[in-house]
Write a structure and sequence with these properties.
Oligomer: single chain
Number of strands: 38
CATH class of the largest domain: Alpha Beta
Bound molecules: uridine-diphosphate-N-acetylglucosamine, calcium ion
Helix content: 10-25%
Number of helices: 8
Number of domains: 2
CATH superfamily of the largest domain: Spore Coat Polysaccharide Biosynthesis Protein SpsA, Chain A
Structural class: alpha/beta
Distance between the termini: 111 Å
Shape: elongated
CATH topology of the largest domain: Spore Coat Polysaccharide Biosynthesis Protein SpsA, Chain A
Radius of gyration: 32 Å
Length: 463
C-alpha cells in the first residue's frame, strides 16, 4: 500500500526591518556572493523540493517581490511586523491543511539542505521538529528549556528569561517543521503578553508539549548555517564564510587557488582541469574557464567564457566576452561586452576591445582602442591604434581583413574597411576604404625649419 506524501510548504520569514543595517535597502535584498540574501534561502527551499514557497514580506514593500519577478513564489504581505508567530499566521490560510510546513528565514542564508532534510525527517504527523544549537555565549537567542528528563518543555526568549534560564546554552535557531494542521491550532491561540509585546512563534513549543505532541530537536552540521545577518559586519562575516565554502568546493574539484582567502566568486564558475587562479581575482555572473586556463592577480571577470590554454595576465577586466584557446590577454587589458576573440590571439596592455571580433592569431599588443570592429586572422595592430567608431550620434563599424598590418598610431575612421593583406603606414588617419594588398598611408609631409629659434619669455634677459 502506498500512502500519499503530504505536500511540503515552505514559509520564509522576510518582513523584518533590519534596523542595524542602516540602509534604505530591505535587509533581505543585501547581497551575499552577488545574490540577495533571500535568493539563497529561496534556492535552498527549492533544493529540498518545497511544493509551494511562501515569502512573508513587509519592510521595504514591493521592492522585495519586484526583485524576484518571474519566480514562482507566493508573496504574503505582513504590513505590521508583530512577531514571528504573527508572520507565520499570515501565510497559514494559503497553506494546504495536510501540508508539512517548514519555516525558514530570509536573513539566514547559509542553511544547508542536508540539515533541513534532517529537520524534516524528524518532524511527523504528531511531531514538531526544531533546530537547536549549543553556544557557550547564547547571547540574544531564545533558550531551549528542557524538563529534568531531558524532554523539551518550551522556548523562552532572552528578554523574558530568568537568570537561571539565561544560563542555558542550548539555543533556538528559529528553524522549525510541523504539520499545518497542528500549527493552525496553536497559532490561533498565541498572544502577545510578553516582554516584547510580540506574537512569538516560539510559544507553539509549549503548546505542542501540552497537546502531547512530541518535540524533536536536530542540530546543524555547521555553526555558520544558522548565522543570521543583522548588521554590515555580520554580512561581511557571512560573505567570507560563503566564499571560503565555494573556494573549498573548487579546490576539491582540482582548481588551484593561490590563496582561497583572496578569491571571490559572485556567481557560478565552471572550470576545466588544471585551472590556476592567482590572488584577488573576482568572478561574477557565469564564468567558464577551459582546461589549463590561468588567471593572473587582480582581475575581474564577469559573464565570460575563456577557452583552454588561455592566459589572462595581471589586472585585466573582462566582461561579456568569449575568448578562444591559447590566447594571451593583458596585463592591463579591458575586454568589454559582445567581444569574441579567436584562438591564439594576443591582447596586450592598455588595450580596450568592445563589441568586436578578433580573428585567430591576431595581435593588439599595446595602447589601442578597438570597438565595433571585425578584425580578420593574423592581423597586427600597432600601438596606439584607435577605431574612431563614434561620430557623436551613431556608432559605425570597422572591418579589417586577414593578415593586415596596421602601423602604430593609426586612426581608423568608421565606417571603414581595410582589405586583406593591406598595409597601413604608421600615423595614418584612414577615413576611406584601404584596398587589399596595398600600402595606404595618410601623413602630413615632414619638414624642418632651418635656423628656427625657441621663443623667449618677454622681459627676460635671455640667460
Ligand atoms: C527569533 C526567535 C528566537 C531565536 C532567534 C534566532 C521568536 C519569538 N524568537 O528571535 O527564539 O533564537 O529568532 O535568530 O521567534 N520577522 C518577520 N515578521 C515579524 C517578525 C520577524 O518576518 O513580525 C522575521 C524577521 O525578518 C527575521 C526573523 O523573522 O528574519 C526573526 O525575527 P527577529 O525579530 O529577528 O527574531 P529574534 O528576536 O531574533
Ligand atoms: Ca534576529
Amino acid at each position: 500500500m502506498t500512502t500519499k506524501r503530504s505536500p511540503l510548504e515552505i514559509v520564509i520569514l522576510a518582513a523584518g526591518k533590519g534596523t542595524r543595517m542602516y540602509s534604505e535597502l530591505p535587509k533581505v535584498l543585501h547581497e551575499l556572493g552577488g545574490r540577495p540574501l533571500l535568493a539563497h534561502v529561496v534556492a535552498g527551499a527549492r533544493a529540498i523540493g518545497g511544493d509551494v514557497i511562501h515569502v512573508i514580506y513587509g519592510h521595504g514593500g514591493e521592492q522585495v517581490p519586484a526583485r524576484f519577478a518571474g519566480e514562482t513564489l507566493k508573496w504574503v504581505l505582513q504590513s505590521e511586523q508583530l512577531g514571528t508567530g504573527h508572520a507565520l499566521m499570515q501565510a497559514m490560510p494559503q497553506v494546504a491543511r495536510d501540508a508539512m510546513v517548514l519555516v525558514l528565514y530570509g536573513d539566514v542564508p547559509l542553511i544547508q539542505t542536508g540539515t533541513l532534510r534532517q529537520l524534516l525527517a524528524a518532524a511527523g504527523e504528531r511531531t514538531l521538529a526544531i533546530l537547536t544549537a549549543e553556544f557557550d555565549e547564547p547571547g540574544g537567542y531564545g533558550r531551549i528549556v528542557r524538563e529534568r528528563g531531558g524532554k523539551v518543555a518550551r522556548i523562552v526568549e532572552r528578554k523574558d528569561a530568568s537568570a537561571e534560564e539565561l544560563a542555558i546554552k542550548e539555543i533556538n535557531t528559529g528553524f522549525l517543521a510541523a504539520p499545518a494542521r497542528l500549527l493552525n491550532g496553536w497559532l490561533a491561540s498565541l498572544n502577545n503578553e510578553n516582554a516584547q509585546g510580540e506574537y512569538y512563534l516560539t510559544d507553539v513549543i509549549a503548546m505542542a508539549v501540552a497537546d502531547g505532541v512530541e518535540v524533536a530537536t536536530v542540530q546543524p552540521a555547521w555553526e555558520w548555517e544558522i548565522m543570521g545577518v543583522n548588521s554590515k559586519r555580520e554580512l561581511a562575516q557571512l560573505e567570507r564564510i560563503y566564499q571560503g565554502n565555494q573556494a573549498d568546493a573548487l579546490m576539491q574539484q582540482g582548481v588551484t587557488l593561490r590563496d582561497p582567502a583572496r578569491f571571490d566568486l559572485r556567481g557560478e564558475l565552471s572550470a576545466g582541469r588544471d585551472v590556476m587562479i592567482d590572488i584577488n581575482v573576482i568572478l561574477e555572473g557565469r564564468v567558464e574557464l577551459g582546461d589549463g586556463v590561468e588567471i593572473g592577480p587582480n582581475s575581474l571577470i564577469r559573464d565570460a567564457r575563456i577557452d583552454s590554454g588561455t592566459v589572462v595576465q595581471a589586472n585585466c577586466v573582462i566582461e561579456g566576452a568569449d575568448i578562444g584557446r591559447r590566447c594571451r590577454i593583458g596585463p592591463f587589458a579591458r575586454i568589454r561586452p559582445e567581444t569574441r576573440i579567436a584562438d591564439a590571439a594576443h591582447i596586450g596592455n592598455f588595450v580596450e576591445i568592445k563589441k568586436s571580433d578578433i580573428g585567430e592569431g591576431s595581435k593588439v599588443n599595446h595602447l589601442s582602442n578597438v570597438g565595433d570592429s571585425e578584425v580578420g586572422k593574423t592581423v597586427n595592430i600597432g600601438a596606439g591604434t584607435i577605431t574612431c567608431n563614434y561620430d557623436g550620434v551613431n556608432k559605425h563599424r570597422t572591418i579589417i581583413g586577414d593578415h593586415v598590418f596596421i602601423g602604430s598610431g593609426t586612426q581608423l575612421v568608421a565606417p571603414v574597411t581595410v582589405g586583406d593583406d593591406a598595409f597601413i603606414g604608421a600615423g595614418s588617419t584612414i577615413a576611406r576604404d584601404a584596398p587589399s594588398g596595398e600600402l595606404t598611408l595618410s601623413r602630413v609631409k615632414q619638414r624642418t625649419i632651418a635656423g628656427w629659434r625657441r621663443p623667449k619669455k618677454r622681459g627676460s634677459t635671455g640667460k
